[in-house]
Design goal:
The protein is α/β, with parallel strands linked by helices. Helices cover 43% and strands 12% of the residues. Strand 5 and strand 6 form a beta hairpin. The structure holds uracil.
Length: 202
């Protein structure tokens, strides 16, 4: 498990952390942003998604995963009988990195209390990391996404599972098998949700 979740620091109330994020200037990403992209969805969702960071469309709208990759994510969520309103969606960093470059270690560090608080408050039964970047941050692994996707990892002291899957942008970039793998990973997530809810594992 990554250092993000082993901190013993108490988690401040949701509204306090969110207000802090909205005015955050802890790193250079704040200089280029249009909007802080905090997160969207149910605050008590059983299923949570974590991506990398906002792109252009998200920066403009202030909402994660609203561009083409987001539309695909929405379809995958609907494919397991849920809607965006049923889940919680966030990113590792809340401000758009310039030219969509990878967030840098000090930027991730500066933003980490926000994601940590979101995960603690939402308390999902299943957390899906989207792509290599979020998976490495949350699982603390160096394994690539192709190897590690579609497996369940214990999370939050075994109360929950983390399931890495591809980033929807991988499908848009034309990675032929990514969509089929993502669909399978979403089915796995649905089953894990049912298991954690105490229902039978269909
Ligand atoms: N890619 C991400 O990782 N996050 C978004 O919000 C949009 C695209």
């Amino acid at each position: 498990m990554s250092d993000l979740f082993v901190s013993s620091e108490p988690v401040p109330p949701w509204d306090e952390v969110m207000a802090d994020a909205m005015g955050c200037t802890r790193c250079r990403l704040s200089e280029g942003r249009t909007n802080v992209v905090w997160g969207v969805g149910r605050r008590d969702a059983d299923l949570m998604f974590v991506g990398e960071g906002p792109g252009h469309d998200e920066d403009v709208k202030g909402e994660p995963f609203v561009g083409r990759a987001g539309q695909l994510l929405t379809r995958l969520i609907e494919g397991i009988g849920l809607s965006r309103d049923d889940v919680y969606i966030a990113n590792v960093v809340k401000c758009r990195p310039p030219n969509n470059r990878d967030p840098q270690p000090d930027e991730i560090e500066a933003c980490s209390p926000f994601l940590r608080a979101q995960v603690a408050h939402v308390g999902p039964k299943v957390l899906m990391t989207l792509g290599n970047f979020a998976t490495k941050q949350l699982l603390g692994t160096t394994e690539g996404i192709t190897k590690i996707r579609g497996r369940e990892f214990p999370f939050r002291d075994g109360d929950a599972v983390l399931i890495p899957t591809f980033h929807p942008a991988a499908v848009l970039r034309g990675r032929g098998d990514a969509l089929a793998h993502m669909r399978a990973d979403f089915v796995l997530a649905k089953r894990a949700m049912r298991r954690h809810a105490g229902a039978s594992d269909a």
